[in-house]
Structure formats: C-alpha cells, structure tokens
C-alpha cells in the first residue's frame, strides 16, 4: 500500500480509500485513488450501469458573499449569473483578457451567497484571482472544512432518494440543502460523467459516514479518478489543463453554450472583444471529437495531420472508451478540418493512425430532465 | 524449457532457440485492463532491452522491451481480437510474440522464477 508522501495533501476520505484498497496516486497535490480493485474498466461500466461514488474533495468549494456577488462575478465570467434563479446552477469560465480560460467552474445561486466549485489544481489561483479582482465588491471564502463527493449513474437517484426523498425529483442543475441520515448536506444534481447524478457537499467530519452509507447500498461501488477521466471523455466534457487552458478561448473549445446570450451582447467580462469576433467570424481552430479507426488509442499530445500528412492540430485527451467499446479522443484542429466526418491521421509512435473528426459526446448524455 | 524474467517485468520462455515473450502476471495487475497491444512485425530484429511492443490500458500506454535479442517469427494474433487475454493469462495465452534468439547467452543475465518473485516482493 502506498503511503501518502509528506508533501501530498489528503481528503477526509483518505483512510476509507486505503481500507478499500484504492491504488493511490498524486493528483493536483492530493493523494487520490486512481482505481480500486474493481479496475478502471469495470468501475467505468458500473457507473454507466448502476451508481458510482467518487471522492472529489480535492476540488475547491468557495462561498461568495457581498452586496451583489452575482454582479461582481459577472466581471470575471461570461455566464449569466445575475439571471440565475435561487437554487439553480450553471457552468461557467474564468477568462483572461485574451479570452483564454483560467478555469472552468460551477456556480450556484444559494440565496444569500453564491456557491462555487472550482478545479483542485486551480483553487488557490481562483481564490487569489477573485480576491484581487472583486476587492470591495465580494468576500471570497475557500470552504476548506467541506468534503465533496460525486454520486453518478442511472441508479443514483433511486439510491439517494432512500436517504433524501426530494433528491430523486430535483431538477438537473439545481441545488438542495438537505439532511442525510440527520447530517446536513448540500446536494446538487450535476456531475462530470454524462450520467444522471449528484454532487454531495458536507462537513469533512461527516464525509465518511455518508460515503459508507451509500457504499453499503447494493447498486453502489467506489470509483477512482481513472474512470472519472474515461467517463468524462466519453461524455465529451473538458478537463482543465488538458482540453482547455489559458491559451484556448470558449469559442475554440466549442463552449459557446456557456456564453449566455445577454453577456455576448453586453460584454463586461475579460476577453469580450476577442470572443465576440470569434463568435461572428469563427475561431482559427476548434475542439473536436476524434474517432480512430480500429482499436488503437491515441493519447494526449498526439499530432493530428491531414490526409497529406501536414500537422493540423493535437490530441488533448485520448484513451479507450469502455462504453463506446472503442478508442476515443478529443483535440484541436484547424477550422478547415473541423467538420464531423473529416478524415485525419493521428501520428501514434511515428505511424499514422486513420481517424475521423467525430461528433461528441461519444456516448449519449443521460441527464435527468424530470 | 526455461522461463526467465526481466526487471521490466517481461518474461521469455525458451525452447531450443525459440523464445516466447510476454509480460508477467505482476505486470498485468499493475497495468489494469488491457485494451490494445501493438505487436512487432514478423521479421523485425529486436535488440535486448529495446522497445518491442506497446501495451495500452484504459489509462495509459506502456512500452514492452525485448528480454533478449532476436528475429520476430510470430506475433500472437489472438491479442488483436481480445487484448484482455493479457489480463486473463499473462504468462500463458496472453503471450506477445516469438523470436529466434540471436544471442542465447543474454539469458544468463535474466532472473529465474524464484529470483523474479523475490524482486517483485522487494519492490512492493
């Protein structure tokens, strides 16, 4: 068993991961389970078939308060935050002045505050960024005393409903303060797998109790970060630092749906001029799905070439999709080659691998629509 | 018949001047579910310790090195259709390729089964 090295942080579920014989690896400064004895392939399939519990306590949970935190946050992101009804949530992006993506995040209108969930590797950056840019307009509190679990899969609603009946019928992308066997918890119907599911936020001292209660249900398995990655890749969802970063704009990344209509017109967020131009005239490159012919996966940083062998882009995430039962990848290509069906070559270990630009997601998303 | 192991967790089983090569059961456990194996072409000359094949799990690609030098005479076609054979039978049906040894004395530098077992336990 791997012991956490002194430089790595641990989550409130660390001892449970060790007890479950999780294979621990460093991730974003934390000692995290990449898989359990079930293995990535079966953990992935189990999540798509039943329900999987993921520890995502390494992610940053942030509370934004002030006179009008929604107006303040809108100065940093292109989403419609002011229009977010109480109890509803939205995916948005911190942008830089070039329209590059500093992080992607979830924002919930929790009534008297905004509740944000940001990436683990970016939470210190994001908190510093907000404190600097929102000074005098909003108070930024990193909620270090909270744990976060993702509970995903087609059986997740039925299982969570045994503990919190209202959870079974709550809307997709909504928020519910609840109690789980008497323990206070914040539930959102959201996730990162393409399946129906939830994220559960609670005090770190209560996390193991909730995790054990869910894992005791027949439908539920503990799922590691390896399957989290293959699930989100099949669902066509971006991983920050790989598929999106400071050099990619939301238009290049195909995230126009995160650019709210009012904000596109009004602006008032960093990089608006560049993004407005790209929305009107197209971006020089696009994030696309890539489907290799055959069984061989193409990994991150694989060059993408046109039929003549000229480099037109690069794979940013790639692997094997257990549900697609085929290799799947995404990456950026020049706009001229971005149409679905365009034949390309992926240069895997010096040899061209035939592939096509493919529509994403690779497996249908199955979010709860009520 | 001799079976020998490398520190990179390949095995080679030798009959006459023909060696059958694969990855150890310990290695397949570490790799996890194998989804693709890239095998060397028949006729390729492999040098000991150099890249010979690639094994891909859901998560990552890993190099497989030639435990001994020689010319590839057969690749395991069954792995193309069912790469999970590497998990099911790493040291039997999940073999990678066969080669004709060009320098059998290289075997002397490899570990026998007992030594490999001790090596793996020492790594844990």
From TrEMBL, chain B:
Domain Lipoyl-binding: 18-100
Residues modified to N6-lipoyllysine: 59
Signal peptide (from-to): none
Top-rank taxon: Bacteria
Protein name per its UniProtKB record: Glycine cleavage system H protein
Alphabetical list of InterPro entries matching this protein: 2-oxoA_DH_lipoyl-BS, Biotin_lipoyl, GCV_H, GCV_H/Fam206, GCV_H_sub, Single_hybrid_motif
Cofactor: (R)-lipoate
Cofactor stoichiometry and binding remark: Binds 1 lipoyl cofactor covalently.
Recorded family membership: Belongs to the GcvH family.
Subunit structure: The glycine cleavage system is composed of four proteins: P, T, L and H.
Record carries keyword tRNA processing: no
Gene3D superfamilies: 2.40.50.100
Function: The glycine cleavage system catalyzes the degradation of glycine. The H protein shuttles the methylamine group of glycine from the P protein to the T protein.
Keywords: Lipoyl
One family name in Pfam for this protein: GCV_H
